[in-house]
Amino acid sequence: MKDLFGVEITEKEYLAGGKPRSLSVYQRRQLGMDYRKAKEGEEQCGECSQHIVMAGAYHKCKLIGVSRSEATDIRVRHTCDRWEEIL
Ligand code: SF4
């Protein structure tokens, strides 16, 4: 099955509004970095050099993007393939 633009998609993706246009730029970055819940013993976002805290409460990743929206919020117990040690 193809979407309006001729891109091959599954029926499930078609019904969900297509792929990848239905994802925000932040969601696409998260997918590209394999942002996920950290397993036990794995490094976490809260210990990564790309992690920042805004207004003392909102955790953001500089690589995913920083905005005032909750769309860019991250979880400190998650991780990704781009984790970097704080120097
Ligand atoms: S582990 Fe990945 S998602 Fe988390 S703060 Fe670091 S770079 Fe961002």
Give a structural overview.
This protein is α+β, with helices and mostly antiparallel strands. The chain folds into two domains: 1-32, no CATH class; 37-81 and 83-87, no CATH class. Helices cover 16% and strands 14% of the residues. The chain has a two-stranded antiparallel sheet with strand order 1-4. The longest helix is centred in the middle third of the chain and has 9 residues, at 25-33. It starts with 10 loop residues before the first helix and ends in an 8-residue tail after the last strand. The model has no long low-confidence stretch (mean pLDDT 87). Iron/sulfur cluster (SF4) is lined by residues 33, 35, 45, 48, 50-51, 61, 63-64, 74, 79-80, 82-83.
Give short descriptive properties of this protein:
binds iron/sulfur cluster, two-stranded antiparallel ribbon, two-stranded antiparallel sheet, 4 strands, 2 domains, 87 residues, elongated, 14% strand, single chain, alpha+beta
